[in-house]
Write a structure and sequence with these properties.
Layout lengths: L5 E6 L5 H13 L3 E6 L9 H8 L18 H7 L2 E7 L1 H9 L5 H8 L3 E6 L3 H5 L1 H12 L3 E2 L4 E3 L5 E3 L5 H16 L8 E6 L4 E2 L5 E2 L6 H12 L3 E6 L10 E5 L3 H13 L3 E4 L6 E3 L18 E3 L3 H8 L4 E8 L3 H11 L4 E6 L11 E2 L1 E5 L3 E3 L3 E2 H17 L1
Parallel strand pairs: 1-2, 1-3, 3-4, 4-5, 8-11, 8-13, 11-12, 13-16, 16-17
Antiparallel strand pairs: 6-7, 9-10, 14-15, 17-19, 18-21, 19-20
Helix pairs in contact: 1-2, 1-8, 3-5, 4-7, 9-13
The structure holds cytidine-5'-triphosphate.
Cytidine-5'-triphosphate binds next to α11 and β16.
């Protein structure tokens, strides 16, 4: 898979830089052409001579060679690469990447590269756990940078914890996966897909509302996965604090009624929809104009049914794609199968509140896909991976 691929290897100033030598070797053995950029500090951890010998290319560190003025073009290196991997990536470099700082050749190359970037964090466990580092990592991830797992283990500081750089073999696997994914990047070209996500908010008065625990993570991950594969995605989003994924058009809504209108309108021109939102089934019959004052008596709020958006799209969908979700706490499979038929869905993604690691707020999910032919149970995986599996199913639907 890596035969003839151009891999740009960025090395920053971390003890784990010694593992970059092995990574370079593994990549070369797999047939890849490897060029190396080092930050000035990285030279203290591994020599340019070692990396130049292993990669069979001169190492780029500075913007130009002071001896002869030879210019190292960060733009042409970014264009050359099929994949840019920064391994090891220090907390400092990750922070600079997240904030667009461009004070060395590696960073300017990152800012101008159009290929997939992979970051392999390597640092002390406390630095890794710090909220600033975690927020920077999350920012990069949101922007499409692949962040490799930092396994737990003994660190150079003598402490034990999370922060070690992933092993070179795991990094090669991440590069292979990124290149395979890139091949898939236009499989949904020309498809327009609506995704609903997040929780709706049903006002009681100007101050209070009825809502639920949905954070929107699953729906946003699906919108992102579909957009990466080339689909034109309209995300109809209830309240969340997530950022809009790159390339996705977002329409913000509050109530179930707003979401109904926005989703029905977006679906008119669409090839399909994924209904991931947690929509309120009931809304207060009346919204008080002013803040309701308390009294000594108990209080009753009368609720009326909201419209079922998925069922409405199911009624009008024809041969278009419709995917639903079911969150169940008992009789999971029968309930989900009933929803599949009742709402005229092509397939439904069942998650059970019984499974640990699935449900609201967490980054993982354990789901079962159910269609009219049968059931497929998936193991516990990240919401991003679940989104990829859903995107695979959507591709298969359009390929038929
Ligand atoms: N859904 C929707 N509009 C609604 C309610 C639900 O589009 N007003 C969609 C959800 O986005 C999800 C699917 O329907 O894809 C199942 O939602 P769920 O609330 O689990 O099912 P309900 O039909 O509301 O059934 P119940 O409340 O009995 O579980």
């Amino acid at each position: 898979m890596l035969q003839g691929k151009h891999i740009l290897l960025g090395i920053t100033g971390s003890i784990a830089a010694y593992k970059a030598a092995m990574l370079c070797r593994l990549l070369r053995t797999a047939g890849a052409d490897v060029k190396v950029i080092m930050t000035p500090t990285a030279k203290a951890f591994i020599t340019p001579l070692t990396m130049a010998t292993l990669s069979k290319h001169p190492i780029a560190v500075e913007f130009y060679n002071p001896e002869n003025g030879d210019w190292h073009s960060h733009i042409s290196m970014g264009e050359w690469a099929d994949c840019f991997i920064i391994a090891p990536a220090t907390a400092n470099t990750i922070a600079k990447m997240a904030h667009g700082v461009a004070d060395n050749l590696l960073l300017t190359t990152y800012l101008s590269a159009r290929c997939t970037t992979i970051v392999a964090p390597a640092m002390d466990c406390d630095m890794f756990a710090h909220v600033a580092t975690q927020e920077n990592i999350e920012t990069l991830r949101r922007r499409g940078v692949i962040i490799t797992e930092s396994p737990e283990g003994e660190l150079a500081s003598g402490l034990t914890g999370k922060g070690r750089m992933a092993e070179p073999e795991a990094l090669v696997a991440a590069i292979e996966a990124a290149i395979a994914q890139k091949k898939k990047s236009n499989t949904l070209d020309g498809r327009k897909i609506v995704v609903t996500a997040g929780a709706t908010i049903e006002a009681i008065d100007p101050v209070r509302f009825i809502s639920n625990h949905s954070t929107g993570k699953m729906g946003y991950a699906i919108a992102e996965a579909l957009a990466v594969r080339g689909a034109e995605v309209e995300l109809v989003s209830g309240r969340t604090n997530l950022a809009v994924p790159a390339g996705v058009k977002r329409t913000d809504v509050l109530s179930a009624e707003d979401m109904y209108r926005a989703a029905v309108a977006a679906f008119e021109e669409a090839d399909g929809a994924v209904m991931c939102a947690a929509v309120a089934d009931y809304t207060p019959e009346e919204v008080a104009e002013h803040k309701i004052k308390k009294s000594d008596d108990d209080m009753v709020i009368r609720l009326r049914r909201t419209k079922d958006i998925a069922a409405e799209l199911g009624r009008t969908k024809g041969s278009r794609l419709l995917v639903g979700f079911a969150l169940e706490s008992c009789n999971e499979l029968t309930n989900a199968e009933d929803k599949l038929r009742r709402k005229n869905l092509d397939f439904i993604v069942l998650n059970s509140l019984q499974d640990s690691g699935a449900g609201f707020g967490v980054d993982t999910n354990k789901v079962t896909f159910i269609d009219h032919e049968g059931r497929t149970e998936l193991p516990l995986m990240s919401k991003r991976e679940v989104a990829e599996r859903i995107a695979d199913r959507i591709e298969q639907f359009f390929d038929k």
